[in-house]
Records
---
Amino acid sequence: MDDEKLDLCHNNEAKCPYCGFEDYDSWELGIGEDVETTTECPSCGKEYGVMRNVEITYTTWELKDDKVLGGSDENRR
């Protein structure tokens, strides 16, 4: 790896801090939110620390009548 600085925070995939490999199977790490653990890079074989960050977002919509609950597309029209 050259002297290029890697962006290692809040990425969509786990990124090896040694070789820059992005693990597109990061979801298979099986770790919970904000849990620190270690994993081995499938590319260079070095072990590094990793933590999963979870962002929660919400979707809202108006209801056509007060008896309808849930988020079906029909309710959002």
---
Amino acid sequence: MSRVINTNSPTKVRNQARRTIAEMLRLLSRKPEVDQETKDMAAMMVYLLREVDASVRQTVEAWEKRGYWMKSERFLRDWEWPAEAAANLEDVIRNEAWDLFPQLLAELYPRFTDIQIKKITRSPGDWRGAHARLLSEPPAPLPW
């Protein structure tokens, strides 16, 4: 029997989610008003930020198993922000507080400046319907 290799490492998942968020931030910066696509993108960002947080926790678990306590602690401290950002965005979406949305995007933007975007590669179909799906789920527990 051959060994099963997981090609979706936490780093790969995290980088793909970050790339998608960076592209959405660029698209959202061009939108003059909140429309249905904006709401779908915001909801998709919640899902992607949760995915980033889960990949961080998976990486930390692996490092702690190997005894890299300081490395995992430092990494966890550097990546505390996705869970809080997801909770804040979800709160804005559920309470229809769209006047706070631009400020949240402005706070998120510096976290994605390291990603170079020459061409938008994500399709609008990736986030279509995310708003309705998020509202149909129970609210996620707060990370703090």
---
Amino acid sequence: MICDFSILRELRKQHGMSIAELSEKCGVSSSIISKLERNQNVCEMETLFRIARSFGLTLSDFISLAEKRTSHLVTAEQYQSGDFMFDRVDYGNLRTMHAVAPAGAKLSSPELHRDDYELCWVLKGKMRFSLPGESYELNSGDSIQFDALLHHDYEALEESEIIIIHLKKGKRF
């Protein structure tokens, strides 16, 4: 993995700290911090851990910020579930599905569920959406968000086009 620790300078400035102030807060020498900001130093994990904690970050979050990737390109995967045709893209914390369905198509507790929040946005048509004890008719432009682990059903009342987004829940502990 190639890391760009110039992000350290940005974090430090966002927190209104000089190199000397950060050095005092985390116990890492000013020269090491300065060299890290210019990518002229290799340091131990303990050093990175102490710097990360100074900003309220975990070590893995700090390293993730320093990774050289500026974007992440994926190609959609196509599949069918019931009478719904899907295109899906997956990222670490997000899954997005675009679906089309003919009138009368039904999908009960769609697959691909993790401990996520789910959002369904109707782009075209009319959908009936059901949760235990609740039922909604969603028209074009309507959306609904819920806990994806709950049993839920989709029914296309008209030819429909929808976007479904699964967003990972934050760490609970």
---
Amino acid sequence: METFMPFRLLRVAESVDNGFMQFCGPEDELSWSEWQVLWSLGERTPTTAKAISGHAGLSKTKISRAVKVLEDKGYLIRKKDRLDRRFELLSLTQKGQQRFERLASEASAFQRWLERNVNIAYLSSLDSGLVGLEDLISTGHLRAPQRQAEEPLV
């Protein structure tokens, strides 16, 4: 398991995320899904859950739950799209915009802290690797392979 890349990526992501949440303080505690929905809306508003899913890579279920929590906290509102009533347009409220701006400021400060405290060669290599993986994902080249019937399960 220690050499399995998905496990390693998740473990590092969890550790960095926990560090970021401690850096921000308990008042900024959001789930990863809530954080991504809030961030997506802060960058592009109004938008749809489908657009957030495409950008953030989250399932519709996770986005739906995050939207409900953020709506209950007064951070976003939903409106039916006038052109296509099947979709809801999601927008940040003033309270949500303020929360996003505070979170963005904290994220910038945390990024600067990382750059001061982690060997720049490590960060640069990690960034290059992540860019490569993100490019593969966005172009559809990093889809799960289909196992051939004759291949044994190992």
